[in-house]
Design goal:
It is built from 8 helices and 7 strands, in the order βαβαβαβαβαβααβα. By secondary structure, the chain is α/β, with parallel strands linked by helices. The radius of gyration is 17 Å and the shape is globular.
């Protein structure tokens, strides 16, 4: 067997967090593996905290609270710092694992240091979100000479890249996912990429598509690019 730490970052997801947690738990329970689930409550202003506390009384669940909203990347960083297992898997609260997707990761375990899933089809995307994702994809590929199909979906990391390889997550927003990939590539860690079906978002809107988050992400991309550009 192997061991896995599943990290779920949560911000104002009171409608879905219980269903999402239970779905992830069911998938992990169906495999013969050692696992922990870590929920990072990223300063939610809704009823998330109460729901998560209730879940933690009934299930084996690690909960970490941010005192205020720090961002997706910051929540993942906190989750990694609190994880103990060999593999680290980060899953959005609104698109929990299903058995098929998890099997895709399992089949590729050990083949590379980072397992990168890409969506066969992006579900629930408006034309605006499609345009954003295409631009972002091109931007990361061109600026950093990367050749991956999807920088923003579910990634599985071998623990060593953070703890032996000393990869530090500097960015608190969505760019964090690409940041880790760029840094891992620069340190010669290995990648494998494979397709998965995206599970339909349970409810609500994807926060990544909000204008202020898009602007922040683009700023982070260029900040990282110019601060690491070889002069």
């Amino acid at each position: 067997g192997y061991s896995i730490s599943l990290i779920i970052p949560v911000y104002n997801e009171e409608k879905i967090i219980e269903a999402s947690f239970l779905k992830n738990l069911k998938v992990l329970n169906s495999r013969n593996i050692d696992f922990e689930i870590i929920i990072v409550n990223d300063g939610s202003k809704d009823n998330c905290r109460t729901i998560i506390e209730k879940l933690s009384k009934s299930y084996n669940l690690k909960v970490v609270e941010h005192p205020f909203n720090m961002g997706f990347g910051a929540a993942i960083r906190t989750g990694i710092q609190n994880s103990i297992n060999e593999y680290i898997l980060c899953v959005p609260s609104d698109s929990p694992l299903d058995e098929e997707n998890f099997l895709s990761f399992e089949e590729n375990l050990g083949k590379a240091d980072l397992l990168i899933s890409y969506r066969r089809k992006r579900l629930g995307y408006t034309w605006w979100m499609h345009i954003n994702s295409i631009i972002y994809q091109q931007l990361i590929s061109k600026l950093f000479d990367m050749k991956l199909k999807d920088y923003n979906w579910i990634h599985l990391y071998h623990r060593k890249i953070f703890f032996d390889g000393k990869i530090q997550i500097e960015y608190n927003g969505i760019f964090m996912l690409a940041e880790v990939l760029i840094k891992a590539r620069n340190k010669s860690y290995t990648f494998i990429e494979f397709p998965v079906n995206q599970t339909q978002r349970i409810t609500g809107d994807a926060s990544a598509s909000k204008l202020k988050n898009i602007i922040k992400t683009i700023k982070d991309v260029f900040h990282y690019y110019f601060s690491n550009k070889k002069s």
